[in-house]
C-alpha cells in the first residue's frame, strides 16, 4: 500500500504521526488558498503565482495538489472531508490530553 514505512514507536505512536501529518496537510491546503486569494485580490494571475512559487521553497509534494486545484478553482478535496474532520478531531483530542494549544 505505502512505500515509506517508518517505525515510529510503541502502540499509539503511529496515530500521533498520522495526526501530525493531517496538521501539515490541512495547513498546507489553507495556506495555498490564502496565497492565491491574495494574488487574485491584488490583480495578479494566480496561475502565474503558482508557477513562480513552485520553483521556490513552496513545492512540497502534498502542496502540489492544493496549488493545482486552487488555481483551477476546483475545490474538490482529494480526501473526504468527513475523514479529514475525524483526523483533525484526533489531533485536537491528543493536543488537549497533552495540555497543548493547537489553534
Describe this structure in words.
By secondary structure, the chain is mainly alpha-helical. It has helices spanning 13-41, 46-53, 61-71, 81-97. Helix 1 crosses helix 2 (46-53), helix 1 (13-41) runs parallel beside helix 3 and helix 1 packs across helix 4. The N and C termini lie far apart (32 Å). The mean pLDDT is 78.
- Total beta-strand segments: 0
* Net shape: elongated
The quaternary state of the protein chains shown equals single chain
H/E topology pattern: HHHH
Task: Give a summary of the structure in a few sentences.
By secondary structure, this protein is an all-alpha fold. The chain contains 4 helices and no strands.
Q: What brief labels describe this structure?
A:
63% helix
What's the helix and strand layout?
Elements: H1 13-41, H2 46-53, H3 61-71, H4 81-97
Helix pairs in contact: 1-2, 1-3, 1-4
Amino acid at each position: 500500500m505505502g512505500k515509506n514505512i517508518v517505525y515510529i514507536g510503541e502502540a499509539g505512536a503511529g496515530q500521533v504521526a498520522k495526526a501530525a501529518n493531517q496538521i501539515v496537510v490541512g495547513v498546507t491546503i489553507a495556506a495555498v488558498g490564502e496565497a492565491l486569494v491574495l494574488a487574485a485580490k491584488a490583480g495578479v494571475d494566480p496561475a502565474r503565482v503558482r508557477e513562480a512559487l513552485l520553483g521556490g521553497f513552496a513545492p512540497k509534494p502534498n502542496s502540489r495538489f492544493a496549488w493545482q486545484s486552487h488555481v483551477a478553482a476546483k475545490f474538490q478535496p482529494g480526501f473526504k472531508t468527513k475523514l479529514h474532520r475525524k483526523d483533525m478531531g484526533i489531533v485536537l483530542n491528543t493536543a488537549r490530553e497533552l495540555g497543548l494549544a493547537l489553534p
